[in-house]
Amino acid sequence: MEMLEFSEEHGREIIRAVDEAVANIMRHSYHGRLDQPIEVYCNRLHRQSNGQTEQAIEILLFDCGPAVDTTKLCARPLDEVRPGGLGLHIIRGSMDTVEYKRAGRLNRLRLVKYVRRCKSEGGSNEEKPS
Amino acid sequence: VKISTRQIKTATILDVSGNIDMSNSTEVRKALLHEIRVQKATRVVVNLSAVNYIDSSGVASLVEGLKASRDLGSRLVLFGLNDSARELLKISRLLKLFEVYDDETQAMASLAPSV
User: Smallest Cβ distance to B56: which of A20, A26, A78?
Assistant: First the structure.
């Protein structure tokens, strides 16, 4: 994150999103078991959009739990005072992209956060690893 | 996480220190609910100035305390939140629900003149 020069606030958002994601995997995918594997990969991405290069960090989290029921991947309404169900709100509010995908026998959660814009030529929106 | 309580006039102050996460947030929840429901504290002030990190389970504990205090007609006040904790409450859209003050002096002043 330092290499990509994220601000302190954005750095905290990334840490918070990953922390909540890992907690959700432990709680919901592994039902509280602490001896199950979670693989985390970090990639540096860049994409060109409207003549600007945007850099991002991509974080992939894999777990071996049962497939997630995607109909349950909706955060609860926030207009009520009750605990629970905040993790997904926090993840979505902290990152630019949050995607879930079943990859073979694994659950894959993909988190992306963009960091900065700099002048460049080109116009592709395609994300590319650096 | 470490939790201790002290009394200033009619206000009960919970001093919390350390990180609040899914491994220990139930301790915070229990301590809060004990003061509100068992001790019948009418003014509970939570000091988070020594809390470095709080996650959604910690926020959920605070929300549960807030709900209990509202149900019983008491007040729950927070102070000493660091940037991370404020951002977390903001992103959860809970910052407006809580009474949040910068420091103990402000928090206690908010309870005056009844304290």
Answer: A20
DSSP chain B: -EEEEEEETTEEEEEEEEEESTTTHHHHHHHHHIIIIIS--SEEEEEEEEEEEE-HHHHHHHHHHHHHHHHTT-EEEEE---HHHHHHHHHTT-TTTSEEESSHHHHHHHHTT--
Q: Is the pLDDT of residue A120 over 60?
A: no
What is the DSSP track for chain A?
-TTTT--HHHHHHHHHHHHHHHHHIIIIISTT-SSS-EEEEEEEEEEEETTEEEEEEEEEEEE-SPPP-GGG--PPPSSS--SS--HHHHHHHH-SEEEEEEETTEEEEEEEEEEEEEE-S------EE-
Residues of A in Cβ contact (< 8 Å) with B84: 12, 16
**Residue A87 contacts B, CB cutoff 8 Å:** yes
Query: A13, A26, A29, A81: which to substitute to probe chain B, counting the most B Cβ within 10 Å?
Result: A81
CB contact under 8 A, A20 and B55: yes
Q: What is the mean pLDDT of residues A48-58?
A: 89
Q: Which residues of chain B have pLDDT under 70?
A: 113-115
Q: Is the pLDDT of residue A63 over 90?
A: yes
Query: Residue A118 pLDDT more than 50?
Result: no
- Which one of A9, A16, A24, A79 would you mutate to disrupt binding with B, by most B Cβ within 10 Å of its Cβ? A16
Global confidence as pTM: 0.84
Q: Contact at 8 Å (CB) between A90 and B22?
A: no
